[in-house]
Structures are given as C-alpha cells and as structure tokens.
C-alpha cells in the first residue's frame, strides 16, 4: 500500500502555497553574460561564472579534442581502472596552483566535503564549524563521529569560545572549518583571525573556497592568497563547477598524508566514478586560463566597484564587501514579496537576477543576489542598475 504519494502531494502543495517552490528556468543555449530563455534574451547576473569560462570556446574545444583522444567514459572508479594520466595531471596542476603538496579529485565539491571528515577525523577529535557553512560541509560533518561545535558566522569571539570548549573536553585533533566566501552575503571569512586562533588552540584550518578559487586574490588563488595566509591553511576544498569552467568536479588540496588517506578512505572517491575524460581536459584548460587571467580579475574588481557605487547612488542598500556577489537587500516584513516582484519585473526588462527569502536567508532579510562576471561589460553593469531602478519604481508605484 502506498501511503507515501498522498503525503508527498500534501507537502508539495504546502511548498507551493508558502511560495517556497524552486522552479527551473530553461536556458536555450550556452551559459554566459547573456542567456536565451523562453522569456527572450537577457543579461544574466545569477551564474557562478566569475571568469566567463563556462561559455568560453577554449575549454569547450579542449573537451571536444579529449573526446577523440580519451573517449567518453571510464566505466570504473579510480582505483580499479578509472584513472587516466590526465586525471593525475589535473590533480598536480590544482596542487601547484594552490601551493599544496597534492590534491585529489571528486566528482563534485559536494562529494569532497561529504567524504573528507569521516576519512580524516574520528571520536576524540573535534570539528568547529561556521554556522553559515555550505550544506555539503554540514552533511559531511554529520557523517563523522568527531565532536561537533558550531560558531556564529565569522565571529572570532564565539569561535574562541567553541575552541576553548573543544579543548576542555579533551579533544585530540581540532579542526576549524569555514567557507572562504559566504555565498548569500558575498562576505569573506576572517581568515587571519581564524588562523591566529588555530595557532593558539593547536587546530587545523580547512577552507572551502568554491566561491573564490580562480578569481579572488591577485593570482586567483582564493581567499588564503587574498589574506596572505596560504601557508597557514591546512586543507582547501573547492569546485570546478563555478569559476574554473563551471562543468563539474571538486577537489581537496592539502598535504600528502591527507590526500593519500582520502584516496584510501573517502567513500565518494572509492565508490563513485570520477570526472569524465572530456571534463578533465576542459577543466585543465580552464585552470590554465584562470591562472593567467589577471586582466579579467582586474576588470571584475572594477565593475564590482562600479556596481556598488551606482546602486548606492540609486538608493539601494547593499551588504558591504568587495566580492562579485552582491546582496541587494529588501528588509522588513514585506521584503520577500518586494524582492520577488522586483526580480520578476527585471526579467521583463531583460535582466535575469534571483530573489532569495526565508528559509534560504534569515526572515526579514530578503534580497536579490547579483553575481558579476568578467564576461560582463561596464555597459552590462549599468543596464543592470537601470533595470533595478525601473523595476523598484514600478513595483512601489503599484
Ligand atoms: C557550490 C559549492 C559547493 C558544491 O560544489 P559542487 O562542485 O557543485 O558540488 C560546495 N561548497 C561551496 C561553498 C559551494 O559554494
């Protein structure tokens, strides 16, 4: 007897009625600064395509060539017969780029974060984690038997309190875990302060730099480079699914013993296929381009400052910061409705942005998140500000 389906139907109806339904807009071509949808052609400000490489012909060409040379698939996990020399080459290139001894690929960063904790930490250890960390870190930590402590977002005082508690409970290895960038706010983790506390409490530091690798920091090496603490961060995780070509794949970059142990013990690595050959080749090309993308990074910094300045002048409230993620706030009780209405009007005006409200962000802190890309021109940014202004004025007039 099926009692599940009626229950699901009730819950699905509730999701619809409370306005929490996540629909999917179908894009009719390649990802880029502009996309084609059923609504027509629009400027796109909601991809994690920070360097514009997702729709760039160069990674695509590398992937096409790889199909001929390396074939379509592997039909095996890594340790049986699923490792090509290009997989190892990409791992070495990631490690070299980030300045670690080695790295290990996963089929996603979600899998990297899901597999790392159980493989490295056990009862007797303690994991001290930022409350706004990505869902995959939260899930990975849940799968592990170490003690768990959660500190308030980017709050060093609370982090100190949780580290003290972990040490007083007699923890063996303590590890501090944080996103490098908090993606709903576009804010950075306070890495220098975190590294100081790690030293004081003899803890390791692990940073998930998915929203930074490739474009944050002078050489694109992410938040540890931005804050000058690369040598003080022990474990980096990240994705190939955002700035680095945007296809799929994740990695852990760390010291040799950590990487070796993950190859032996991380379950998503052991029991799941790795990246498809074409994705490896395209990602290697994307990483090579990102390493030299100084002009693109400078352009991104410039247009981010331009967007902030013009939005401020137009009377919008933005969360402070310098990252290309911008949270345009619509505070208060009516904020969720207003943000949704403004985003919908903007699409009519040819500008694609996404509104977020509770439970994705705290109640009363609804926002439209704007993500800039090096593929955007200054005119694209000004068109976005113009659409924000017209949409807001239209919505407030109704
Ligand atoms: C996007 C993201 C992930 C997931 O990356 P995938 O490779 O798509 O699984 C993990 N952590 C953070 C912080 C992210 O932003």
Report on this structure.
The protein is an alpha/beta fold and 398 residues long. The chain folds into two domains: 21-51 and 293-397, Alpha-Beta Complex (Aspartate Aminotransferase, domain 1), CATH 3.90.1150.10; 57-291, Aspartate Aminotransferase, domain 2, CATH 3.40.640. Helices cover 44% and strands 17% of the residues. The protein contains 15 helices and 15 strands. It has helices at 4-17, 57-70, 78-81, 85-98, 109-120, 135-142, 156-168, 191-200, 223-226, 256-265, 267-270, 277-291, 294-313, 335-348, 378-397, and strands at residues 34-37, 40-44, 102-106, 126-130, 147-151, 174-179, 181-182, 187-188, 203-208, 235-239, 250-254, 325-331, 351-352, 354-356, 365-371. The strands form four sheets. Strands 3-11-10-9-6-4-5 form a seven-stranded mixed β-sheet, sandwiched between helices. It has a three-stranded mixed β-sheet with strand order 1-2-13. The protein has a three-stranded antiparallel β-sheet with strand order 12-15-14, with helices on one face. Helix 4 (85-98) packs parallel to helix 12. It is globular. The mean pLDDT is 97. The site of pyridoxal-5'-phosphate (PLP) has 14 residues, from helix 5.
